[in-house]
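re the bet — no i am not wrong, look at it urself. input seq straight from the record:
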Amino acid sequence: MKTEFKNFGALVGWKITDYHANAKVGALPYEIRQSDGNYKPFLPLGEWQRSDNGDSMSCVTFAEINSVETQEGQQTGQQINYSDRWIAKMSGTTREGNYLSTVAETIRKVGLVLESDYPAPLKYTWEEYHATIPERLKSQLEAKGKEWLNKWSVSYESVATDRTSLMKHIKHAPLIVIIPGHAVMNFYTTQDIINYFDSYEPFLKQTTAIVSALKLVITPKEHAPDPDSLFTDINYGDWGSQIAKLKRTLARNGFTTENKGELYDDDCARLVLNFQKANFPDVWWKSLAAWTKPLFWEMIRNWPGKLVGVETRKIINNTLNKR
């Protein structure tokens, strides 16, 4: 028998550019911030995503902002209420809802504003909730969003939905998860139960299975990684903005080129090899100890300079974050 699920605003799917944990395209260095993985003491006040006149279909926004508010509560000891309506509108939420990564990217780009800055009407239809923001007010809200971004760095990546993965990654940050048709914030996971914070009463609920998960992490700007840090493997023949970023990181370490193109070509490979060799002194080449060095094998298997893998990225990021 086919089971029908009601849609409350969660669309399932990822863009080709989205980052995924534990993969070559992982976005974040893993960190344990809540050792027991239980964020219940830091949960915000519950808020409905609907009124008597209609549903905003903004469960993805509510879940992700609940995560941000929970993380801020954990890190600062202060309870803050941000405007869900602002991000729901700026992320282009439709009558069918939105995608996890689309809303996360919007938060990363435009920042958050207080609920008092852009509140929801007491009673609203979908059209009223997502009404066009007057230009003057929008400019003021964008300025306030930038103020928030001056304080916080935002990163996100998808995570696998098996129980081992959820129990690992929730120690880093609360997870935004999709149960069929609906996005909620997972604040505690055990081997048996996924505890989540909803945007409908009762706000605290449980489930045993989910279909998608995303980890959105906020970090105070003074503790955030250097913006040029590399979190993806980059291969010979790749092209795009990641190559421009790679060349910028190499230049900051003294390895420059006149070629400003966004292609990992022979010239770029030469820069990578020179950087690797500079961080793998000649003495190692003359010693059996070289065989014990992970960078040695990364270089040999991808000679000459045709991969910026985990070992090379580790060295690059260490140099950037020490400056």
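see?? The chain is about 35% helix and 15% strand. told u. also The chain has two domains: 10-223, 234-321. so pay up
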